[in-house]
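Can't paste images in this forum, so I'm doing it all in text. The chain is below; anyone willing to post the predicted structure tokens underneath?
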Amino acid sequence: MKKVRLAAHRGFMALYPENTMLSFKKALECDIDMIETDVHMTKDGQLVCIHDHGLDRTTTGSGLVREHTLEEVLAVDAGVKKGEQFKGERVPTLREFFELVKDRKDIELNIELKDYPHDSHEFAYESCDKTIAMIEEYGLADRIYINSFSGDLLNYVYLKYNDRYRLHGYYNIKILGSHYDNDMLKRLFCACIFNIKVDPVTGAHDWSQNHIVAPKEQFDFIRSYGVEPWVHYGAAEEEERFKTWLERGAVGFTCNNPVLAGEILKKLGAR
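Text version of the structure:
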């Protein structure tokens, strides 16, 4: 069986505070091919690695990242909510992350753009451009996947940067925005398949069936566009789901626990 890509989601977030330098360093100690992280821009135009739009869930701060300066974001604790033993971890800058991984040429990078045009308008495009400028500064373009739940941002990167970057989208394609159809697949390198339904009128997402692996027809469909089928699993990894995903053609796995995921994939002959 062909070796599949294994990506550490927000670093090694199952055991360490997500999107922190500790989480990234621990992920690099594992048998992985990729680290996924999220990028927001601060009020004063600096790039930081944090998933949520707000500081509240993962840090001791509150409010939107984009409404705080870098100094303010760096002042909050990003570890203590995971456990007292992690007190003192902070939100890293994108530059710190790139400094950590720049010489690990065996590791690819999945960069998720989290500032969205639908709620932050031109700010989101500035955040995107600054992220790509830093990628170019570090010479990382060939190791990068640009990822977003915003089809508008993916489309922007495709058009502005002349198809230079591998784009990571999602399927059902309507996740990327109600105005996108399957033609968007022609611009993607890979798509993470979620078993969800999107209401064609309201755009509401029904995630109630996402615990069930999506039908094989969906994997085959995106393959027919030349798009790689990837999957994401954030809970305790289950061997049966991994086996089904492999049988249906998944070639990329993004997981919270890269050690456990790696052990399962190795047992199944995919590592």
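The chain has one domain: 5-267. Residues 122-137 form the longest helix (16 residues).
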